[in-house]
Specification:
Length: about 140
């Protein structure tokens, strides 16, 4: 009986130790990210572009549960995933294909930064609001 108990304790200890090395993505961050966002502004180096949120133009990026993302209402622009530590957003394909650092992620804001060719770009996203066409 002692041998059986020792074997069970050893197996349990091994399972606990191995589970500590299993990559786990922060489900809370995924839940916050999966939705439709719209850009408020983008900062590229010294330049800032603020978007007119009431100009009637469709500007959006939607992160879907299936790991795909869509830009401006297109069916699929590429794929996305979070790094194991939840600090990076890896987007493949499309205009946003890059590794982004998550600076802020809440229900009210998603701020991500990437760097290409020695320059950084920070994208400030807010929850999506459908555009209203302006009367002419």
């Amino acid at each position: 009986m002692k041998t059986y108990t020792k074997a069970m304790i050893t197996c349990f200890t091994l399972l606990v130790a191995l589970s500590a090395f299993t990559p786990v993505v922060d489900a809370g961050k995924e839940k916050l990210l999966i939705r439709k966002w719209m850009p408020e502004k983008i900062v590229m180096g010294e330049h800032t572009k603020e978007f007119d949120l009431d100009d009637g133009e469709e500007r959006s990026i939607e992160f879907k549960k299936n790991g795909k993302y869509a830009k401006d209402g297109e069916p699929d622009s590429g794929s996305w995933k979070l790094s194991e530590d939840g600090k990076k957003l890896i987007m493949e394909g499309g205009e946003f294909g890059s590794e982004w650092t998550i600076d802020e992620l809440s229900k009210c804001r998603c701020t991500i930064t990437t760097g290409k060719n020695g320059e950084s770009a920070t994208l400030y996203l807010i929850p999506y609001k459908a555009p209203v066409k302006k009367k002419e």
